[in-house]
Amino acid sequence: MKKFLFDLFPLILFFAAYKFADIYVATGVAMAAAIGQIVWIKLTGKPIEGMHWINLAVIVVFGGATLWFKDDAFIKWKPTMLYWLFGGALLVSQIFLGRNLMQKLLGEKINMAAPAWTRLNLSWALFFIAAGGINLFIAFSGFFTTDQWVNFKVFGLMGLLIVFVIAQSVWLGKHIENKDGDPKP
């Protein structure tokens, strides 16, 4: 739970800063929090996960553009770009490189047949691509305000992720095998 909250630290601070100030202050706070995360991990001597580096790069690029151009469109693109990066990496590695990143990530903990790993990898890729598209709709369709987008970014995308993880857990429960390759009872 502590790691989960630590990973959400920039998002939580972004939300709080937005509620007390505006999108530009919130963007600066999120950028500082992402940098602070990396510094903290480095100071504690733990390895920095690739996801932290990717998040830092995306927030610095899109947050920096938001502040430089005084245009909140850039920060609204940030979740989509992050999700599309993840989804694209899952697809490209599977289709063009023959590598299943989900199996690489979870393979030591979960034993499944190759087709199940392929479906898991594809479902996560499609989830990330769809979530990125939904973010674009909320951010730029004209049907929603910036306030509503911020709430969606914090609670809506997180809610979608939690529902998807629960659904994936149920699906995984039906496809996990024991060490002998037989389905678990």
On the 0 to 100 scale, the average pLDDT is 91
**What is the element string, with H for helices and E for strands?**
HHHHHHH
How much is the radius of gyration in Å? 18 Å
| Proportion in helices | over 70%
Tell me the structural class: mainly alpha
Shape: globular
Main beta sheet: none
Strand portion: under 5%
Terminal Cα separation, in Å? 29 Å
How many domains, as an integer? 2
Question: What's the total number of strands?
Answer: 0
Annotation field: number of helices: 7
Poorly predicted runs of 5 or more residues: none
Question: Could you characterize the architecture of this molecule?
Answer:
By secondary structure, the protein is an all-alpha fold. The chain has 2 domains: 1-71; 75-185. 79% of the residues lie in helices and 0% in strands. It has 7 helices and no strands. It has helices at residues 2-20, 23-44, 50-69, 73-95, 101-106, 114-140, 146-175. It is globular and about 50 Å long. The model has no long low-confidence stretch (mean pLDDT 91).
List the helices and strands and how they pair.
Layout: H1 2-20, H2 23-44, H3 50-69, H4 73-95, H5 101-106, H6 114-140, H7 146-175
Helix pairs in contact: 1-2, 2-3, 3-4, 4-6, 6-7
Outline:
With 185 residues, this protein is an all-alpha fold. Helices cover 79% and strands 0% of the residues.
What structural keywords apply?
single chain; 185 residues; mainly alpha; 2 domains; 7 helices; globular
